[in-house]
Design goal:
Chain lengths: 369, 360
C-alpha cells in the first residue's frame, strides 16, 4: 500500500515537470525558437562538464535546504513562506562568524552551522510562538518577518560589515573562512560547489529520521493531518507548532549559510533571496518528502544554472527562460489536479480490471457450470 | 492510457533526435561574437545597460559582429561570473560589462578566460578588498568624467531656468553617482557666478536613495522635493530616476512647472507628456554607446588597447549633453557649447571630489 502511494506522488511530480516543459516548448515555439534546441542547451548548460555540474549542485544545495524547511513545516500543516527572511538572518549570523571567528576548521564548521541554525531558528520560532499563543496566521507572520529581516540587514550591513567602497554589500569573506573547500573546487574544476552539500544531505537524512522514526515526528505529522484530532489524542499542539517552525527556520537559516558564505561570499542589502520562494516550489514538486525535495532541488538547480547557457546559444531571450521555469513551478503548484487525474485513471484501470476479473469469474462459473 | 504512453514515447523519440542534431547547427561566416552581461536592471533600463547595448547593436547592424546579451539572475559576483562563463562557452570572446560592480568579477575572469577580451565600463579590475589592482592584456577599463557631464547639465539647467531651487536624487552613493552630484552643484555655482543666474540648492534636497531599482521611492522623493518648491531635479539614479520622471510627468500634465535632468543617455523621450512636450530639460550623458562601439572597432582593427584604463571626458568627447535639446533655448545651447569647449581646452576645471561648499 505504501509503495503504491509513493509511486503515485512520483507520477504526479513527473507529469507536472513534463507538462511544464511542454508548456515551455510551446512558448519557445511561439516566439520562433526551436524548443528542442532550447531544452538541449538548457540541459547542456546545467550538465555539460564537471564545472557546470558543480554549479548545478551549488545552486541545488540552497534550494534543498529551503525546500526541506518548507516541506517540514507543511508536514505540521504550517505554510512557511518566511524562508527568505530566515535565510537572511541565518546567513547574517554565518557571515558574522566567518568574519570574526577564527578556529581550527572542524570546530569552525560546527560553530558556523550552529550560528546559522540559531539565527534561522530564532526567525522561525517567533511566528511559531505567535501562532501558538495568539493564533496569528503563520503566513502573515512569516511574511512580516521577511521584511523585518530585509530592512534590518539593510541597516546592519552598511553599519557593521561594510566593504571597502560598496555600500550595498558586506565585505567579502576570505575563501579560507567560507564554506568552499579546496578539494571540492579541485574535483569540480572551479565552480561554486561547497561543503554545504554535506550539510544538506545530512539535514535530509536527519529530517527523514525525525519524521519517520521518532515520537516527535509522529506528533508533528499528527498535528499536520488533523490538529483537533491530535489535540484530542493528547498531543501538545502548540508545543509542536513552535518546534516545527523553529526547525523549519533553522533549516532555512542553514540555506542562508550555504548561500551567503558558500556560494556568494557576501550579503547584499536590498535583495530578498528568491530561493526563499523557489523553495516552496521545490517542496511542492518533492511532495514534501525529504527524498523528493532532494531530487526536485537538483532539477530546479539544473534549470537555474542551465538557463544562461541556453540564452547564450539560442535566440530564446533570458526573460523567456524565467517564464519557462515559472511555468514548471505553476504546474507543480497545481499538482492537486494531476493527483485527481491519476487517481481517476487508477480508478478506471481498477474498475476495468475488476470488471474483467468479474467477467472471468462469471465465465469460469459458467464453464464449470 | 495506452494512447498516452504511445504519444509520450513518440515525443521522447522526437526529442532525442532533435537533441542529437542540435549540436551541429551553427555554421556560416565567422563574425566576432560580442557578448554583454547586464548589470542590475533590464536591458531597456533607459540608462547604463541600454546605452552600452546600443553601441553593440550599432556594430551588429553594420554587419561587423554577432551580438548577444545575458541577464544574470542576481547581482553577486558569482552570478556575473557564471554568465561570463556561459558567453565564453557559447563562443563569445569579446565581452562588454557595464558597471563598476563588474570590477571584481573581471579581476577573476581575466585569468580564468585568457582567450577572451573584456571591456569594463565605469571601472577597472581589482580584488574584492581593493588590495590588488591588476589589469591584464585582455582587459580595458573605462572611466567617465561624470563631474564634467553633471557640470554641463548644471550650467545648462541654470541658464535655462535662471531663478529657482534645484535638487539632486542619486541612486547608490558610489563614486560615479557622487561625481555627477558634485559636478551638478559646481555647474550651478558656475552659472550663478559667471552668468548671473539665481539658482539655489539646499543640502536637504541632495538625496541618495540607496538603490538603482526602487521606482516607487524615486517617485516619493521627487514628490517631496517638488512640494518643497524645487523646480529642477537631476536624477542620476537608474530606476529610481524613472520614478522621479513619472512624478514630474504627472505634475507637468497637471500644469505645474517642474523639470528633470536625465542621466547617462538622452532621456528626452522618456519624459514626453500628453501634448508632446517633455519634462526632461536636458541629460547629463556618458556616451556609453560610443565606448562600446569604439572598443569593438578597435578589436576588429587589431588595435584593442588591452591592459589600459581609459578616461573619457570632454577632451575626447566621451561625455556631454545631447546634441539636440528641444527644451533649451538656442542662446543657452550656444553658451553651454562654449563651456564645453572651455572644458576641452582646460580653461574650466571641474573637481571630481567633494570640495568645500558641496553637499554630500
Amino acid at each position: 500500500m505504501k509503495i503504491k502511494f509513493k509511486s503515485n506522488t512520483f507520477l504526479i511530480a513527473v507529469s507536472a515537470v513534463i507538462l511544464g516543459l511542454v508548456a515551455g516548448a510551446i512558448l519557445m515555439a511561439s516566439i520562433g525558437s526551436n524548443p528542442f534546441e532550447g531544452f538541449y542547451y538548457l540541459f547542456r548548460g546545467g550538465l555539460m562538464n564537471v564545472e557546470r555540474i558543480g554549479n548545478t549542485i551549488a545552486t541545488a544545495i540552497t534550494l534543498m535546504l529551503v525546500g526541506l524547511s518548507v516541506a517540514f513545516a507543511f508536514k505540521t500543516g504550517l505554510f512557511n513562506i518566511g524562508a527568505a527572511g530566515q535565510m537572511l538572518v541565518g546567513g547574517l549570523c554565518a557571515t558574522l562568524v566567518a568574519h570574526y571567528v577564527f578556529l581550527p576548521r572542524p570546530l569552525y564548521l560546527i560553530v558556523i552551522i550552529a550560528a546559522a541554525l540559531l539565527g534561522g531558528g530564532l526567525w522561525g520560532v517567533i511566528p511559531g510562538l505567535l501562532k501558538a499563543k495568539f493564533n496569528v496566521h503563520e503566513v502573515v507572520a512569516t511574511i512580516m518577518m521577511n521584511w523585518i529581516a530585509y530592512w534590518s540587514i539593510y541597516y546592519f550591513v552598511p553599519a557593521y560589515l561594510k566593504g571597502p567602497s560598496l555600500e550595498t554589500e558586506s565585505k567579502s569573506i576570505a575563501i579560507s573562512q567560507s564554506l568552499r573547500s579546496p578539494w571540492l573546487t579541485e574535483i569540480f574544476g572551479g565552480g561554486y560547489i561547497n561543503l554545504g552539500i554535506f550539510v544538506a544531505i545530512l539535514a535530509i537524512i536527519l529530517i527523514k529520521f525525525i519524521l519517520d522514526k521518532t515520537t516527535l515526528g509522529f506528533e508533528l505529522k499528527a498535528v499536520g493531518s488533523n490538529r483537533f484530532c491530535a489535540e484530542y489524542a493528547g498531543v501538545k499542539v502548540n508545543r509542536n507548532v513552535i518546534i516545527s517552525m523553529m526547525i523549519a527556520g533553522g533549516l532555512a537559516g542553514l540555506a542562508g549559510m550555504t548561500y551567503y558564505t558558500g556560494y556568494s561570499r557576501n550579503i547584499q542589502i536590498g535583495v530578498m533571496p528568491s530561493m526563499g520562494f523557489d523553495g516552496i516550489a521545490v517542496a511542492l514538486l518533492g511532495a514534501s518528502s525529504p527524498i523528493g525535495v532532494f531530487f526536485s532541488a537538483l532539477f530546479f538547480g539544473m534549470l537555474q544554472s542551465g538557463k544562461g547557457f541556453m540564452n547564450a546559444m539560442t535566440e530564446v531571450p533570458p526573460e523567456i527562460a524565467d517564464t519557462i521555469i515559472a511555468t514548471i513551478i505553476y504546474f507543480t503548484a497545481t499538482s492537486v489536479l494531476f493527483k485527481k487525474f491519476w487517481d481517476s485513471v487508477g480508478k478506471r484501470i481498477r474498475t476495468k480490471r475488476k470488471d474483467r476479473a468479474d467477467k472471468a469469474v462469471a465465465q469460469e462459473g459458467k464453464d464449470n457450470g | 492510457m495506452k494512447k498516452f504512453a504511445v504519444v509520450l514515447c513518440v515525443l521522447l523519440m522526437l526529442g532525442s533526435m532533435a537533441f542529437a542534431q542540435g549540436q551541429t547547427a551553427t555554421a556560416g561566416k565567422q563574425l566576432l561574437k560580442v557578448g554583454m552581461v547586464t548589470d542590475a536592471g533590464t536591458i531597456d533600463d533607459k540608462s547604463f545597460n541600454q546605452g552600452t547595448w546600443e553601441g553593440i547593436l550599432k556594430a551588429q547592424k553594420e554587419g561587423l559582429v554577432e551580438a548577444k546579451y545575458l541577464k544574470p539572475s542576481g547581482s553577486t559576483e558569482a552570478d556575473y561570473l557564471k554568465e561570463i562563463g556561459n558567453l565564453y562557452d557559447a563562443g563569445y570572446r569579446f565581452i562588454i560589462c557595464p558597471g563598476f560592480k563588474f570590477e571584481t568579477t573581471i579581476f577573476e575572469a581575466q585569468d580564468k578566460y585568457p582567450a577572451a577580451k573584456f571591456v569594463i565600463l565605469d571601472g577597472e579590475p581589482h580584488s574584492a578588498d581593493y588590495s590588488v589592482f591588476r589589469i591584464e592584456k585582455n582587459v580595458v577599463g573605462v572611466y567617465y568624467a561624470e563631474q564634467e557631464s553633471g557640470f554641463l547639465a548644471g550650467v545648462a539647467a541654470a541658464l535655462q531656468v535662471k531663478t529657482g531651487e534645484f535638487g539632486f536624487i542619486g541612486g547608490m552613493e558610489i563614486p560615479a553617482v557622487q561625481k555627477f552630484n558634485w559636478g551638478w552643484q559646481q555647474g550651478i555655482k558656475y552659472a550663478n557666478e559667471k552668468h548671473g543666474t539665481k539658482i539655489t540648492i539646499k543640502a536637504e534636497n541632495v538625496i541618495y536613495q540607496g538603490s538603482f531599482d526602487n521606482v516607487a521611492a524615486g517617485q516619493q522623493i521627487a514628490a517631496s522635493m517638488y512640494d518643497k518648491g524645487v523646480n529642477v531635479i537631476f536624477a542620476a539614479a537608474g530606476g529610481v530616476g524613472v520614478g522621479a520622471i513619472n512624478e514630474a510627468k504627472a505634475r507637468a500634465t497637471a500644469g505645474k512647472n517642474v523639470w528633470i535632468v536625465g542621466v547617462d543617455v538622452d532621456q528626452y523621450n522618456d519624459g514626453v507628456i500628453p501634448g508632446g512636450k517633455s519634462i526632461i530639460l536636458t541629460s547629463a550623458m556618458k556616451y556609453l554607446d560610443r565606448a562600446s562601439y569604439d572598443m569593438i572597432k578597435h578589436e576588429l582593427a587589431g588595435t584593442f588597447p588591452g591592459g589600459t584604463v581609459l578616461r573619457l571626458n570632454a577632451q575626447n568627447d566621451g561625455i556631454g549633453i545631447p546634441v539636440t535639446n528641444p527644451n533649451l533655448s538656442a542662446d543657452v545651447s550656444a553658451k553651454v557649447a562654449e563651456v564645453f569647449n572651455m572644458l576641452k581646452t582646460g580653461a574650466v576645471k571641474v573637481a571630481d571630489t567633494q570640495v568645500a561648499g558641496l553637499f554630500k
